[in-house]
């Protein structure tokens, strides 16, 4: 008897639904075991990322310098994004990384710097340490294995350590490492098993070297000073690792050291020594220092008008350019935009001092820099390019002489340049473009704005007495007690705006600067006279205030009133002269 088909459908539907739910849950669970937690992108510290990790996670640390003590958890991969530029610094007597009783962990692609203990392994731990550089700074222990912990220490570079590797049993595997210029490479001398395919050079004591060792042959690192331990093409450590180990980069027999083996960092070291020379209206020559790693096959040149370009985001359609294995390249046809439309700066009243003038002005949008123009008879007598600063102190001037000054802004089309290195693999592994490697250069003609407002200033004689600043107005300063008194400033402004604008005024100022310090010296030694001097100066200060601060209508009225008073006085004197009786 055939069952009713309608009874089958719910059963099939429930079975399929249950299977789908199972698959989704399984996939979600698998995804959770493969999470990548970045530092400092996702977490501020390495330890915070480790604490938040689940079994199977990778903690990926971006380039930078990290100074913290780290404790690992089981089933975690701790990896630097770029070995040479991801630095773990020592902090006191604590190990940089503690691996105590945890299993299935790996530490790769870091440079350990100046650590008393780099990695301390104890308990029943099981750890792989591969693809790291340990720069000990002349002391400390790079890797310390205690108890019967299981560790595989492979493809690391140990430089200038007190002791590179210390172990308490010979079950610790040590292979494909380079030991250079350490006090002791491997300790103790009595444990000799599980050591193979390591290179030893310039250590005070090598310790047990094991089998297939490379002794006193040249590693030829790129630059120890820059912590670039990539190998040159002439290095004797290339393809000298364990015959059963393969390089992740080329798939050939493993190299010795931190940049060989299955966990090597494939990123080339960043390009340095970038220099740009403008050699025409629309062309520049870009030069850089060569990256001599045998893995590097060529360079890419990036350029654009945006300082923050990243990779292919450069705003020039042809950037980047694969220039091959050269260390200079000439760019032409940049066709820079016209640098025009600059506003003139606004120049403040100069602050005079001994044989100098301090100039300050407002910034101008779009300006690449500023030119200061000054002179006695004309502002065209001297011109100084002061760069992108908005202040400048003109020195070497003559006291008691009026100087005229203006400022102009200038602009030029600017481009930013960067160069990366890449290897010859199909992946074209490429070095980073850190901000510091970018360089700015002007391209094409320079366009200058109109002049700012013109100012006139007067360098002051030095060291007026007693203990007065080198800014003049000696008698007034002595009478009021300090240079910044508003009355003194009024007299200075009166001098600059009225006296220095004509020959008689300049002659009077010259006379005052000759005899003023003498009067100020006498006044300083007779303080009881100061109130009388201040009273005598009051009419002059009031008159200066009226001239400097009054409106044009008020000043015209004042002149008319003065003229009327002078005319009336003349008429009175004339009338009196008529009324005097003549002698017969």
Characterise this structure.
- With 584 residues, the protein is of the alpha/beta class.
- It folds into 4 domains: 1-32; 38-231, Pectate Lyase C-like; 268-459, Immunoglobulin-like (Sandwich), CATH 2.60.40; 462-549, no CATH class.
- It is built from 7 helices and 37 strands.
- An 8-stranded parallel beta sheet has the order 1-2-5-8-11-14-17-20, covered by helices on one side.
- The relative contact order is 0.06.
- Mean pLDDT is 81; it is low at 1-10, 19-33, 312-316 and 462-472.
Low-pLDDT segments, ≥5 res: 1-10, 19-33, 312-316, 462-472
Strand tally: 37
Reading off the top of the CATH hierarchy, the class of the largest domain is best stated as Mainly Beta
Seen as an oligomer or otherwise, the chain set is single chain
Principal-axis shape: elongated
Under CATH, the topology of the largest domain is which? Pectate Lyase C-like
Strand percentage: 25-35%
Write the layout of secondary structure elements.
Elements: H1 8-32, E1 36-39, H2 46-52, E2 58-61, E3 64-66, E4 70-71, E5 77-80, E6 86-89, E7 97-100, E8 105-108, E9 111-113, E10 117-122, E11 126-130, E12 133-135, E13 141-145, E14 150-154, E15 157-159, E16 163-167, E17 173-175, E18 178-180, E19 184-187, E20 195-196, E21 199-201, E22 214-215, E23 221-223, E24 228-231, E25 275-278, E26 284-287, E27 296-304, E28 321-324, E29 328-331, E30 351-353, E31 356-360, E32 369-375, E33 382-385, E34 391-395, E35 403-423, E36 439-448, E37 455-457, H3 474-480, H4 486-497, H5 503-525, H6 530-549, H7 552-579
Parallel strand pairs: 1-2, 2-5, 3-6, 4-7, 5-8, 6-9, 7-10, 8-11, 9-12, 10-13, 11-14, 12-15, 13-16, 14-17, 15-18, 16-19, 17-20, 18-21, 21-22
Antiparallel strand pairs: 23-24, 25-26, 26-29, 27-28, 27-35, 30-31, 31-34, 32-33, 32-35, 35-36, 35-37
């Amino acid at each position: 008897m055939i069952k009713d088909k309608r009874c089958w459908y719910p059963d099939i539907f429930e079975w399929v639904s249950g299977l789908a739910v199972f698959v989704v849950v399984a996939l979600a669970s698998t995804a959770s075991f493969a999470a990548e937690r970045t530092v400092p992108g996702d977490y501020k510290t390495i330890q915070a990322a480790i604490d938040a990790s689940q079994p199977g996670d990778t903690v990926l640390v971006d380039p930078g310098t990290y100074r913290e003590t780290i404790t690992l958890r089981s089933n975690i991969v701790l990896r630097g994004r770029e070995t040479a530029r991801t630095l773990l610094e020592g902090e006191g007597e604590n190990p940089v990384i503690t691996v105590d009783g945890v299993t299935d962990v790996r530490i790769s692609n870091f440079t350990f710097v100046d650590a008393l203990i780099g990695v301390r392994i104890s308990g029943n731990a099981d750890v792989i340490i591969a693809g790291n550089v340990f720069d000990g700074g002349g002391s400390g222990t790079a890797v310390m294995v205690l108890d019967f912990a299981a560790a595989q220490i492979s493809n690391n570079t140990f430089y200038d350590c007190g002791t590179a590797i210390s172990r308490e049993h010979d079950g610790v595997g040590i292979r494909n490492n380079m030991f250079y210029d350490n006090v002791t490479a491997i300790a103790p001398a009595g444990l000799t098993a599980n050591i193979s395919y390591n290179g030893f050079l310039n250590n005070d004591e090598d310790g047990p070297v094991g089998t297939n060792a490379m002794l006193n042959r040249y590693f030829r690192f790129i630059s120890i000073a820059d912590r670039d331990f990539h190998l040159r093409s002439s290095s004797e450590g290339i393809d000298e690792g364990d015959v059963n180990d393969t390089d992740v980069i080329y798939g050939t027999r493993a190299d010795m050291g931190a940049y060989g083996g299955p966990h090597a960092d494939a990123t080339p070291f960043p390009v340095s020594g970038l220099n740009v020379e403008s050699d025409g209206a629309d062309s520049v020559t870009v030069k850089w220092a060569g990256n001599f790693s045998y893995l590097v096959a060529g360079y890419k040149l990036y350029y654009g008008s945006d300082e923050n370009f990243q990779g292919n985001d450069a705003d020039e359609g042809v950037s980047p350019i694969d220039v091959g294995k050269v260390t200079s390249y000439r760019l032409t046809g940049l066709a820079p935009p016209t640098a025009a439309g600059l506003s003139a700066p606004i120049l403040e009243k100069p602050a005079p001092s001994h044989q100098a003038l301090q100039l300050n002005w407002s910034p101008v949008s779009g300006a690449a820099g500023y030119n200061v123009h000054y002179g006695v008879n004309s502002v065209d007598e001297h011109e100084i390019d002061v760069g992108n600063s908005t202040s400048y102190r003109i020195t070497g001037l003559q006291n008691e002489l009026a100087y005229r000054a203006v400022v102009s802004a200038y602009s030029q089309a600017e481009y930013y340049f960067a160069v990366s290195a890449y290897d010859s693999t199909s992946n074209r592994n490429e070095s980073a473009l850190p901000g510091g490697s970018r360089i700015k250069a002007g391209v094409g003609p320079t366009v200058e704005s109109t002049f700012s407002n013109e100012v006139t200033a007067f360098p002051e004689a030095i060291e007026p007495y007693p203990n007065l600043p080198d800014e003049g107005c000696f008698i007034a300063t002595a009478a009021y007690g300090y240079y910044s008194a508003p009355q003194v400033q009024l007299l200075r402004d009166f001098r600059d705006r009225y006296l220095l604008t004509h020959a008689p005024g300049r002659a009077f100022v010259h006379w005052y600067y000759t005899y003023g310090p003498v009067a100020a010296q006498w006044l300083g030694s007779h303080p009881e006279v100061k109130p009388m001097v201040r009273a005598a100066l009051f009419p002059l200060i009031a008159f200066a205030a009226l001239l400097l601060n009054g409106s044009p209508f008020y000043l015209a009225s004042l002149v008319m009133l003065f003229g009327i008073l002078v005319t009336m006085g003349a008429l009175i004197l004339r009338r009196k002269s008529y009324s005097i009786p003549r002698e017969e």
